[in-house]
Amino acid sequence: MSDSSKPTNEKIIKSKNRVQNHGEVFTPKKIVKEMSDLPTIHEACQNLTSTFLEPAAGEGVFLVEVLTRKMNMVEKNYGDDLTCYENYSLLALSTLYGVELLEDNAKKCAMNMYQVYYEAYQQFARKHGKKIKAKVLNSAKLIISKNIAQGNFLTKLSANGNPIVFSEWKVINLRKGVKILNVQRTEYTLNDIIEGVEKEKGEISPHLEKIEQLDLFHLFDDEEILIEEKTRVKYIPTKITEVYKEEKEEVNG
């Protein structure tokens, strides 16, 4: 019996209600693999910085397939040592984006992507007699959490009604022989991306920006009125293995 005729337990629907209410039907893995073998997609999977945006990510079958191929490419081309692999595998991970309407699917997609990254990283480290690093895994989690959004691709809105926001992870020292990559994180709404809007390096989306309150509860005397001061901040360049720190600095003016 050939592989194509073997029975499979793979589910392409979760329930009739979800199909009726959301049009949810998953693409079989076999079809995803065949799609990924198409010349344009195959070539993009072999390109470290080629980006993918899946508008209906589901549980991440397509993104997982692309990530698997990119991780294999990284091991082949950037597997000289663990440090090099850690940096370039995170860069490969940072190129994958997805939007998913349903919360359970979005969470499953993120978990599936992390599992692929974790297992590939662990296998590579063991092969070289090394241990995996918490900072690398934490950075992988952060990247995935900012690249996979729950929301509606058509309305460009997230589940809470705010614009869908993604982070760009732009390498600022990508050249031959560099092992430790530095990246500049900048936030864009989905609409910004579609419209080709240019943003200031490190800019944080106003929809997500946290307002820092300086000396909010500091009283000079009992009759002083509290003054709330707002500061504008932006992301600063950082090592890709340390993006989990989300380091920022104040912007003057």
Give a structural overview.
- The chain has 253 residues and is of the alpha+beta class.
- The protein has one domain.
- Helix content is 38%, strand content 17%.
- Strands 1-2-3-4 form a 4-stranded mixed beta sheet. The chain has a 3-stranded antiparallel beta sheet with strand order 5-6-10. Strands 7-8 form a two-stranded antiparallel sheet.
Radius of gyration: 21 Å
Poorly predicted parts: 1-7, 18-25, 209-229
Share of β-strand residues: 15-25%
Structural class: alpha+beta
Counted up, domains total: 1
Helix content: 25-40%
In order across it, which strands form the biggest sheet?
1-2-3-4
Subunit arrangement of the protein: single chain
Average pLDDT score = 83
* Alpha plus pi helix count: 8
Written as H for each helix and E for each strand, in order along the chain, the element string is: HHHEHHEHHEEEEHEEEEE
Main beta sheet: strand number and arrangement?
4 strands, mixed
N-to-C span: 70 Å
* Apparent shape: globular
Q: How many strands in all?
A: 11
